[in-house]
Amino acid sequence: xVTLAVDAMGGDDAPREIVKGxxxxxxxxxxxxxxxxxxxxxxEAELSQFxxxxxxxxxxxxxxxxEMDEVPVEALKRKRGASITRAVGxxxxxxxxxxxxxxxxxxxVAASYMSLGTLKGIRRPGIAATFYVKEQPVxxxxxxxxxHCKPADLxxxxxxxxxxxxxVLGVRAPRIGLLNIxxxxxxxxxxxxxxxxxxxxxxxxxAFVGNVEGDALFRGLCDVIICDGFVGNIVLKVxxxxxxxxxxxxxxxxxxxSGAGAALDMFHAALDRFRWRIDYAEQGGAPLLGVNGVCxxxxxxxxxxxxxxxxxxxxxxxxxxxxxxxxxxAARVTPLLAEVD
Length: 341
What we know:
The structure is a single chain. By secondary structure, the chain is of the alpha/beta class. The chain has 2 domains: 1-118 and 290-320, Isopropylmalate Dehydrogenase (3-Layer(aba) Sandwich); 123-288, Isopropylmalate Dehydrogenase (3-Layer(aba) Sandwich). It has 12 helices and 11 strands. It has helices spanning 16-28, 40-47, 72-78, 83-92, 105-116, 151-167, 190-202, 229-256, 262-278, 280-283, 304-319, 322-333; strands at residues 2-7, 32-38, 57-61, 98-101, 126-133, 136-141, 175-179, 207-212, 224-226, 285-289, 294-298. It has an 11-stranded mixed sheet, sandwiched between helices. Helix 1 packs across helix 11 (304-319), helix 6 crosses helix 7 (190-202) and helix 6 (151-167) crosses helix 12 (322-333). The radius of gyration is 21 Å and the shape is globular. The two termini are 38 Å apart.
């Protein structure tokens, strides 16, 4: 039985959508227990609208909430009873195996990093986001946890993201690309050039295909794309905005069509499939890889379906014992990092 600590107060529509997500997830799986962390009265009021499996759903009181616009580290120090702090504490105490939060991402990252520490062989954690290209997953890491990276950090991101793609997403022999301004070996800044050298030395432990440009994310040229958190966050936000814009254009044009019969039905079906590929709710959340526990950070706008999917991802990571596999592969690659750490 896997136990999840869920930050019930994190997100734009908390606790309503968070509670609904837990109820949906509990209905779909009898192998998971849920600890809803937050203001008990508000959580119980939402739970009262359902007939949940209360033997597997419990509420843990946390009086404080870290808002989206607060500075993470300062807020964590000031609000000792914050829901994300107590959720992470449940993992540290061994009462849960994973945290799921749609709240302040910086607070979730900082709380997990400071309280749980990092896996053996990992210096800095990173967030791995997943896109779907031709119905195949592509993982990009880091998308915002660490903007001050060293080459050794990016190599470790490759280790963690490739194992996540393989073990959790089912990608066989993930191919890793390093995001750069050109495919040539000498292109880029010192960080990318030095990182590429490390990746080449790490073969055959990991499958490095070399530098890739930004369009590789949508062309299926590799299964994992590595970059620092500053670049990755921009890529993520631009991609989300573009996807939403394209979707709106399709919808606008669709509404102009009338009387097209079967052709219109086919277009509607294709649009639904396209929506599935770009909808962040299908993935639910992105794992913070590298911390000594499992942490899934979700979009602040997450609704119940997204939260339920994020919880399923957390359970898979625990069941696959992903952190142990990361430590094992990191140990084999560590000798390469002695000179650059």
